[in-house]
Amino acid sequence: MRTVRTSPHIHGSLRTDKAMLFVIAALLPSCIWGVWAFGLRALLVLIVSVASAMLVEYLLGLVSKEFTLKDYSAAVTGLLVGMNMPPEIPLYIPVIASAFAIAVVKWTFGGLGCNWMNPALAGRVFVFFSFTSQMSSFTLPRWMAVDALSSATPLSAMKTAITGGAAGRSAELLSSTIPTTELADSISSALGISPYAVDAFFGNVGGCIGEVSALLLLVGGIFLIAAKIITWRIPVVYIGSFALLSWVFGGIPYGLGAFHGEILVPIFSGGLMLGAFFMATDWVTTPTTPKGEIIFALGCGFFTFLIRYFGSLPEGVSLAIIMMNIITPTIDRFIRVKPFGYVRKPKKEAKA
Amino acid sequence: MKLATFSRGGVHPADKKDLSKEKKLERLPIPSELVVSMSEHLGAPAVLTKKKGDTVSRGEVIGTAAGYISADVHSPVDGVVVDIRKVRVQSGAVADAAVIKSNETQSNPWTDKHDWKKLSSEELLDLVRKMGIVGMGGATFPTAVKLTIPMGKEVDALIINGVECEPYLTSDYRLMIEKPDEVLEGVMVAAAIAKPKKIIIGIEANKMDAVALLSEKAAAHGYPITVMPLKMKYPQGDEKQLIKATIRREVPSGKLPLDVGVVVCNLGSCYAMYEAAVYNKPLVERVITVSGESISEPKNLIAPIGTKFSDLIAYCGGEKDDAVSMVAGGPMMGFAVYDDSTPMVKGSSGLLILPKMVDDFSAPCVLCGKCVQHCPMGLQPNKMFRNIKYGNYQAAMDLGLMDCKECGCCAYTCPSHLPLVQGFKLGKKMGRKKK
Predict the structure, then answer these.
(1) Chain-wide mean pLDDT for chain B?
(2) Closest Cα of chain B to A278: distance in Å?
(3) Cis ω on the peptide bond leading into residue B235 (within 30° of 0)?
(4) Is 50 exceeded by the pLDDT of residue A270?
(5) Which of A333, A325, A345 is nearest to A124 (CA)?
(6) Residue B368: which of A18, A285, A232 has the closest Cα?
(7) Burial class (CB in 10 A: 0-12, 13-18, 19+), A207
(8) Cα maximum dimension of chain A
(9) Quick count: other Cβ atoms within 10 Å of Cβ B151?
(10) Closest chain A residue to the Cα of B424, Cα to Cα
(11) Which residues on B lie below 8 Å from A9 (Cβ)?
(12) Percentages helix, strand, coil for chain A, rounded to the nearest 5?
């Protein structure tokens, strides 16, 4: 008996479920760092998030009779939700976030491929506005904690400082509130950059479990680009446009004037790396055309900048990406690829 | 050196040509029974002129062209028509076919050489038409129609397609390696008809030995032919992509290569034109690559048109136990065939016996945009597919569905394994019907 199918009779190696496993693999270094820095409590948060996301996916599968756990997309969503939680968060919050992400954002329009914004980000934003104080109390990595008191992230501390009327660069603004490591101090005195940028790059700062180490996120992101799961366009344009805006206008709220804004601290902190490489590159909620991807990334960069510097929140990555997710269908509708051998269509004549 | 290629999209499947690359051309012994379909080519099927019981001789016309885009069909053997029946060929077309029982001894009417250089271009064109030559890369467009240059049009370039970008296939490669002089002379026949300003043979970089051999031979004969190596990328063997790769011109949507002053001709057809011009031999046999992981001995065979696939498989030592599918043509655009007695046609460049190549995974579209990135025509397969899925054929056509040539790059890369090409085939059919 011959099997008959339509051409092509061979297929490339890319597959949705395998791609999801690649994303999980790329996220793991950063997760391990988070667990190492914040202790087993962080691991518990990650496990609870992934488990609740998969459980909700399974339960909804019972209703819809589609069993979609094996495409691993729920696991990725759960993991991203967990990585976006502060390490000391009460455990019911990641459960709510995961449930919201899967049940409301992903499944109301039909599951994988039909969500209109990134589920993990939507879950995070939902609990952020519902449990703001728990969602914004962070701890420092255990080797830096002077006492058990919670600490601010560099971005929120800077926001607090400038709303209090202070001005200056991160090194001056933060010296009284956030400690730095010796490594960062030595590198910063050698290179003349802010020690907080160095600490944020290596992951020696307070923050959500998965967002602290910019270096490991960068490694994971480059792995995804090398594996051809994502393209360079969104992360590079997103981070690039945000850095440019920060440099040109970012100094203004800090009393530094135009073209004197800091670049490294904002880039390496506040989950920008996590957002740019793993959230803004989500297949479903980003434009499909290369030109559209660039517009999307520029928008992300712009809104992140706007919210961080001129909004009342210290962090803007999640809201910026969600905002662009919502605009994505519009981008896809109007930004088209120029077809091969394109001929401009003559204006349609009025119907006789 | 940076090799030329087309600019947009495309994929790089493993070329798998090693299976049959070194296998010399072999002549298949004339099978005892042939099934010669009247639908050997693109366009109207030929009209069968023989009845059951008629004797036919080798090279005799048994089907006459029915219209402008059509081609004569000749008997590949001496024999008797034992039956006339409707037969489905690889493309799915059903047409009358003559079942010919071949005689024990076969004549060879094609031994005398003719000097084609004395003929005018009109006479040569007529010869190409009479010999039933069609594009042998798979599309089987009648070559005579292609080489008919309308008044007032000039051909800047005659591009010979020796790309063979489909994996597995090595039929054109073997022709270039074993019959370089004949192929080049065939190119000159085409050039004598089309009168181009320049002649380019495009060959992909996995056949650099053929590039070297043909350039050397062309120089030795003093032919004004440029042999151009091209970077490997599927679907470079498509006319439009080949024109873009070789002379950087883009054929406008809905137009023909001639509109940008180009005629593209398949390399196998050039060899057929050589035989037609020199020996007055009609197109009654062709080179076919029998390959795939599940055939015992991959081979490059010269087989008469009308040979049943089962005869080819038997000659190649039968198939292995893991064989699940039989594909006529290449793996990217070929047709899966279920019936082993399907006959070869003029466009049968390969026959592949494959094990299970594609797993049964399926997922919904995740809007990853891979199809958009890889579409060589700059279309948006994801959108067209969604429209077709919901029956909105007009919307799909507005998105350029008719520019799609079903090369399969989108379906090859789709991580959710959507049957994109199947959708587009359906969409085109339904879309045409509505008009």
Answers:
(1) 93
(2) 14
(3) yes
(4) yes
(5) A325
(6) A285
(7) buried
(8) 83
(9) 4
(10) A6
(11) 325, 327, 331-332, 334, 336, 352, 354, 357-358
(12) 60, 0, 40
Inspect the interface and report whether the beta carbons of B361 and A288 lie closer than 8 Å.
no
Contact A271, A318 (CB under 8 A): yes
- pLDDT, average across residues A122-132: 93
Predicted local distance difference test score (pLDDT) of residue A351? 45
Two structure tokens written together for B244: 């873009």
What per-residue confidence (pLDDT) applies to A216?
95
Mean pLDDT of chain A: 89
Asked if B83 contacts B51 with a C-beta cutoff of 8 angstroms, the reply is: no
Mean pLDDT across the stretch B48-65? 94
Two tokens at A219?
Answer: 């490694």
User: Using an 8 Å Cβ cutoff, are B199 and B158 in contact?
Assistant: yes
Q: Which of A231-235, A262-266, A283-287, B130-134 has the least mean pLDDT?
A: A262-266
Boundaries of CATH 3.10.20.600 in chain B? 27-110+282-354
Enter the pTM of the model.
Answer: 0.90
Using the beta-carbon criterion (under 8 Å), do B369 and A114 form an inter-chain contact?
A: no
Inter-chain CB proximity B377 and A293 less than 8 Å: no
> Who among A4, A10, A286 is closest to B338 (CB)?
A4
User: Predicted confidence band at B1 (pLDDT cuts at 50, 70, 90)?
Assistant: low
Kindly report the CATH class assigned to B27-110+282-354.
alpha beta
Question: Are A8 and B332 in contact (CB < 8 Å)?
Answer: yes
Which is it for strands B299-304 and B25-27: parallel, antiparallel or unpaired? Answer: parallel
Asked if the model's pLDDT at residue A146 lies above 70, the reply is no
Distance CA A242, CA A267 (A): 8
Q: Tell me, what's the pLDDT at A109? A: 86
Least confident residue range of A202-206, B52-56, B417-421: A202-206
Residue burial B404-434, b: 16+ Cβ < 10 Å; e: rest: bbbbbbbbbbbbbbbebbbbbbbbbeebeee
Sheet containing B262-266: order of strands:
B225-230, B198-204, B157-161, B262-266
The residues with which B79 forms a beta bridge, in sequence order, are B56, B102
List chain A residues with CB under 8 Å of B334.
7, 9
Query: At the topology level of CATH, where does B112-279 sit?
Result: Rossmann fold (3.40.50)
ipTM over 0.90: no
Structure tokens at A194: 């802010």
**Residue extent(s) of CATH 3.40.50.11540 domains in chain B:** 112-279
Confidence of residue A93 (pLDDT cuts 50, 70, 90): very high
- DSSP assignment of A238-279 equals HHHHHHHHHHHHTTTTTTS-TT----HHHHHSTTHHHIIIII
| Counts of helices then strands in chain B (DSSP H, E) | 13, 17
